Structures are given as structure tokens and as C-alpha cells.
């Protein structure tokens, strides 16, 4: 692999400092690339691992999911730039424009900006409604878990199921809403989904399959949810786990 970097590549810019971006930077150095590496991150944290956010972090069992310490990036000569989101790219000029207006030239560009949590259009902007994608999202959700809180999790995919299990482990009453016949039906099929459904119900989850969310109500803070079958339930906390979309609009 070292031979591939004998060409004059002076700067590689990696847009996105999640797992893919960090591993790309690591492998470039491991493969013998000696030029400049700039790693752009739109958050203010050192790059971190995301899977524990819906489990250990929410439950308060783990706080730090950092992938590498700050010293690693210095030692590997990786220019990690926090709060430096890419906002546009000019492929003819080979420049990336950052959120603060800075133009950054590159010889090669790696797009690793990942995903963002999908939201439901038309829902009111109410406190108590959460998505889970970043460490800040996870910490905000954990802070909202107080005695007696009533939770609604919308979507029984991987994130929704994991969040539901974490909330139940903390003693939270949870209604899990899934428009499909079973949890995880679209990725694992209804047979496995039925087994997952049984695990949730045995853990005390109020699983409502085959029905979606129609409306959220509240005055500043969410107080109730209207389901697709017309049922209205009281809630204090809502987690939207309905998938994600690629961050490519820039």
C-alpha cells in the first residue's frame, strides 16, 4: 500500500470525525502516507464511539466513549479541527468551505459526514422530544429521566429497541410504538421481530405494533401523544427513533 502514496498528494481532508473518519486517518498513516491530514468535526468533542450512546451512556454506566485521546492526533500529525463543519465543496477548485467561512484547499477529499437522525415533519417544537445521534443527545435524554417520567419511543428499529431497553432498565414506564407488525420487521423479518416483541413485553414494555404517531400535544413541553388509531396517551418524554438520513446536503 505504501507505493500508492508516491504521487504528490500533499493534503488529504477528511470531512467527518466519526468512526469512519478517524479510522481512515489512522489507516493513511499506517499505509505510509506522510502528507498533511486534516480531520474536520462539526462537534466540540473528541471523536467518539456512537453505539454505547443508546445503552451504557443513557444508563449512566459509562461517560467516556472517546475513540482516541487528544495526544494520539498530535503524535500522528493529524490536524483535528473541532466545531469545523464542512458547508460546501468546490470540486473544480478543490476547496472545502467551513461553517466559519474558511476555505480549505485539498488534494484529496474523503466524505465521512455520516448520518443525522430523521425527524417527523409537522410535529410541534416541544421540550421533552428527543432524538439520539450525538453524545449531547444521549446526555440530554439521560438528564430527562426522573422518577415517575412516562416515556414514548417512536420506532422499534435498533435505536428504538435499545433506548426502550435502557429506559426499562432504569425503571421508566415505556410505550413503544411501531407502524410495522413487529419490531425490526424491515431488517430482521417478522419471525425474529416477534421474538424481540416478546422480550420487550416480558420486560414490561407497552408495545403497540401496527400503529403510528399522529400528533404530539403540549404547551411548551410535551404532555400527550395521539396515536394513529386515535388513542391519546399521557407522556412526559418522547424519543424519535425512526431512522436517519445521510449528511450530504452540503
Entry keywords:
alpha/beta, four-stranded parallel β-sheet, 17 strands, disordered N terminus
Explain this structure.
By secondary structure, the chain is α/β, with parallel strands linked by helices. The chain is 23% helix and 29% strand. The protein has five helices and 17 strands. The chain has helices spanning 19-30, 70-75, 135-143, 158-169, 185-202; strands at 11-15, 36-40, 78-81, 86-90, 95-98, 103-105, 108-111, 115-117, 129-131, 150-154, 173-178, 206-209, 213-218, 222-227, 232-234, 237-240, 244-246. Strand 10 (150-154), helix 4 and strand 11 form a beta-alpha-beta unit. The longest helix is centred in the last third of the chain and has 18 residues, at 185-202. Residues 1-6 have low confidence and may be disordered.
Summarize the structure.
This protein is an alpha/beta fold and 250 residues long. It has 5 helices and 17 strands. A hairpin with a 4-residue loop joins strand 5 and strand 6 (103-105).
What does the radius of gyration come to? Answer: 21 Å
Regions with little confidence, pLDDT below 50 for 5+ residues: 1-6
How far is it from the N-terminal to the C-terminal residue, by CA? 31 Å
**What overall form do the CA principal axes indicate?**
elongated
The secondary-structure element order is EHEHEEEEEEEHEHEHEEEEEE
Task: State which percent range the strand residues make up.
Answer: 25-35%
Average pLDDT figure: 95
Amino acid at each position: 500500500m505504501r507505493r500508492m502514496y508516491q504521487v504528490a498528494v500533499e493534503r488529504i481532508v477528511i470531512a467527518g470525525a466519526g468512526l469512519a473518519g478517524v479510522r481512515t486517518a489512522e489507516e493513511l498513516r499506517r499505509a505510509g502516507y506522510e502528507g498533511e491530514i486534516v480531520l474536520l468535526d462539526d462537534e466540540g468533542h473528541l471523536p467518539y464511539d456512537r453505539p454505547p450512546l443508546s445503552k451504557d451512556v443513557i444508563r449512566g454506566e459509562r461517560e467516556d466513549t472517546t475513540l482516541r485521546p487528544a495526544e494520539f492526533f498530535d503524535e500522528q500529525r493529524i490536524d483535528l479541527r473541532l466545531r469545523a463543519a464542512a458547508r460546501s465543496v468546490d470540486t473544480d477548485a478543490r476547496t472545502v468551505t467551513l461553517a466559519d467561512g474558511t476555505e480549505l484547499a485539498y488534494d484529496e477529499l474523503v466524505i465521512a459526514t455520516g448520518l443525522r437522525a430523521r425527524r417527523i415533519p409537522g410535529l410541534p417544537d416541544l421540550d421533552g422530544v428527543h432524538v439520539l445521534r450525538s453524545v449531547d443527545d444521549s446526555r440530554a435524554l439521560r438528564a430527562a429521566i426522573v422518577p415517575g417520567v412516562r416515556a414514548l419511543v417512536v420506532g422499534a428499529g435498533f435505536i428504538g429497541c435499545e433506548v426502550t431497553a435502557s429506559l426499562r432498565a432504569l425503571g421508566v414506564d415505556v410505550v413503544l410504538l411501531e407502524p410495522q407488525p413487529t419490531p425490526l420487521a424491515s431488517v430482521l423479518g417478522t419471525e425474529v421481530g416477534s421474538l424481540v416483541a416478546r422480550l420487550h413485553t416480558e420486560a414490561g414494555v407497552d408495545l403497540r405494533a401496527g400503529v403510528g404517531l399522529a400528533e404530539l400535544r403540549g404547551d411548551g413541553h410535551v404532555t400527550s401523544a395521539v396515536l394513529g388509531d386515535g388513542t391519546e396517551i399521557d407522556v412526559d418524554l418522547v424519543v424519535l427513533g425512526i431512522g436517519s438520513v445521510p449528511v450530504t446536503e452540503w
